[in-house]
């Protein structure tokens, strides 16, 4: 079993602590939190070992799980990697693309693996259809959240939209050609609502909207491709696949048939895969353990996360404020 230490015991950090503690692939050795009062409270309540400083935690671990505010990611990740320890780090990987590039180079130098917590890749609804998303040409995503002050240290693009940027980049096999974006600050110093139109070299267009001051939560994406429409509800963990094929000459009475102006007939049918419930955070953490054991590439590499961060920062730079 890999010895795992957690850096950060806030809301998400406590979830990671609980899951690592119950995982059969890790031995949780404890955690470090710079907030001594919070650290003592977590240690007393849950019984996890509290380390007095970060260096002691890193020295005792095989893998360090970084669940701290984004602005601290770079410095602590450098310490973890330089010590020769594997790194799991929450999204976004760092605050800037330059910092991410430095971490990638450092990990290569020290021969350690890194995975980034883009957890929606492990959402069971997305996993159920990702193999059916083939050359999408139009993608629309809405990620809306009720206001929570925990995420306002970064723009909504880095807090919420980056999930959809990463998901889009994972299925669109083309480079980004052009970005148009707009953002509005309502309650924070940085935009709380943002929209981005991302055009790819192959002609695909992704229209992404994110808001952290919505009246309700929503996390939906729709993928349109030749003869197919695929929708994913990341929040409700359901998906739908609507496909078209050439209509038979003698369709049955219940067949859904469309006919275009040229007289070509297509039959619409549903091909919905089953969604297997999972704990996405536990699965991403355990997939990283598998990558370490098998010396294979993590599901979400630091390079992939860096690319998502680069596009997210380009969205922010293109805001028409």
UniProtKB/TrEMBL annotation:
One of its GO terms (molecular function) is nucleotide binding. It holds the Pfam family GFO_IDH_MocA_C3. SUPFAM superfamilies: Glyceraldehyde-3-phosphate dehydrogenase-like, C-terminal domain, NAD(P)-binding Rossmann-fold domains. Residues 156-216 form the GFO/IDH/MocA-like oxidoreductase domain. Residues 3-118 form the Gfo/Idh/MocA-like oxidoreductase N-terminal domain. InterPro entries: Gfo/Idh/MocA-like_OxRdtase_N, Gfo/Idh/MocA_Oxidoreductases, GFO_IDH_MocA-like_dom, NAD(P)-bd_dom_sf. This is Oxidoreductase.
